Amino acid sequence: MSQLSTRHLLGIKNITAADIELIFQTADNFKEVLNRPIKKVPSLRDITIANIFFENSTRTRLSFELAEKRLSADVINFSSSNSSVKKGETLIDTVNNILSMKVDMVVMRHASVGAPHFLSKHIQANIVNAGDGTHEHPTQALLDAFSIREKLGDVAGKKIAIIGDILHSRVALSNIFCLQKLGAEVMVCGPITLIPKHIESLGVKVEQDVMKALRWCDVANVLRIQLERQQIKYFPSLREYSLYFGINKRMLESLDKEIVVMHPGPINRGVELSSDAADSGQSIILQQVENGVAIRMAVLYLLAGGK
Amino acid sequence: MHKRLVLDQQQISIVLKRFCHQLMENHDDFENTVLLGLQPRGIVVLEQLVALLKEIAQIDVPYGYLDATFHRDDFRRRDFPLKANETKIDFLIEGKKVILIDDVLYKGRSVRAALDAMIAFGRPAKVELMVLVDRKYTRDYPIMPDYCGIKVNTLESQYVSVEWREKGFEQDAIWITEKA
């Protein structure tokens, strides 16, 4: 099979394990391209992609833009802070205006859950969800699973603990879907106030003792506390959170095995992850960033290539 | 299905040995020469040639696999994207004499894409093309082989299939077959 089962990447929930495997195999090829002296291929040279970001982003936006440029696509960038959205324009009007300039694909981040799904029902262009509220962030989950596969050889059968603010994290949900589709066991760990109710129904284990989670897992994917999404206090202080749920080198060294440490970034050093843990040999945080470009190239290539 | 034998195992073996001797004639001690097999089907020809060069002349030539999928000109003109294969080139081709190797030369579009893909690894001093089979009068691009096993007349309704024992076939053989 060389075609995805969908023409949009809206979330991991609605793609298949075969889709994920195809994206990984294509990303393997693009990773090789990224290590060449000339890191560019002409595949998307007649394609225009609009990066529409209604929410702040540094690495995801840079990663998408770099992936698009490595594929020779024409790129336009849009952020809501300096746009007509501030003047009251609707989402569909904004996007349709951009598409009338003959744009073929849209990469969108939006604060509202389901915004890209809504858009996909109204426009013709291929849509890639770069994060919709607290719902999904599919390319982050793909690059996380790809990085685990690269580090440990396979995802199937591995135990992955997602530690931190699960309630507000789109990365957590996409990771759960992705890792489970690939045959991994998933545990979520964090303060009870930051674990969504009924999350067990997704087939994940729930743990509130971070040391127990670390002892159980092969990989710890540590998430940031998303203060910007927290309208109320979910824990007394960052210092207390760090004391109970922060991970440091001493904790990693106390385990009887060497686990892999991941973080989707940006890291709040000293809160969820100490500097000595983030910069340790067990951390693959920078490899995740590197793999992000290859994964996004693969997604864009496969979506653009279908009719 | 009607099919016609173009080369049998013995004839393919003779062609590959001829290729070796032609290369030895043109490339002296191979000091500045590298071989690139085009994915996916040029790889078998490449590997046979590398083994023969070692056997006949005790020569180890640097070689690699080149995949041109991301450089093709028919992206978005097909119903679905082509699946890429591995590119494995552990050296730069800057200033090298490169021999591109494929099994069948047809429209010339794959070779054009390969020439484009190859440039990512440096500016070669010279590029030569070696193919087992040249389908005459079918070219879309001005591309001709420097080394050719056999030239054949074919119709658009036919294809040339190359069978290798190492791919599970009984004998090495090249056939012209009517498309189904």
Automatic annotation (TrEMBL), chain A:
Catalytically driven reaction(s): carbamoyl phosphate + L-aspartate = N-carbamoyl-L-aspartate + phosphate + H(+)
BP term (GO), one: amino acid metabolic process
Keywords on record: Pyrimidine biosynthesis, Transferase
Domain Aspartate/ornithine carbamoyltransferase Asp/Orn-binding per the UniProt entry, residue ranges: 157-303
Full protein name: Aspartate carbamoyltransferase
Protein family according to the UniProt entry: Belongs to the aspartate/ornithine carbamoyltransferase superfamily. ATCase family.
One Gene Ontology molecular-function label: amino acid binding
Binding locations of carbamoyl phosphate: R59, T60, R109, H137, Q140, G265, P266
Binding site for L-aspartate: K87, R170, R224
Root EC class: transferase
EC number: 2.1.3.2
TrEMBL record, chain B:
InterPro entries reported in the protein's UniProt record: PRTase-like, PRTase_dom, PyrR_bifunctional
Highest taxon listed in the record's lineage: Bacteria
Occurrences of domain Phosphoribosyltransferase (ranges): 7-163
Chain coiled-coil ranges: none
GO molecular function per UniProt: glycosyltransferase activity
Keywords attached to this entry: Glycosyltransferase, Transferase
Pfam family name, one: Pribosyltran
PANTHER family in UniProt: BIFUNCTIONAL PROTEIN PYRR
Name under which the protein is recorded: Bifunctional pyrimidine operon regulatory protein/uracil phosphoribosyltransferase
Source organism of the structure: Mongoliitalea lutea
Primary gene name: pyrR1
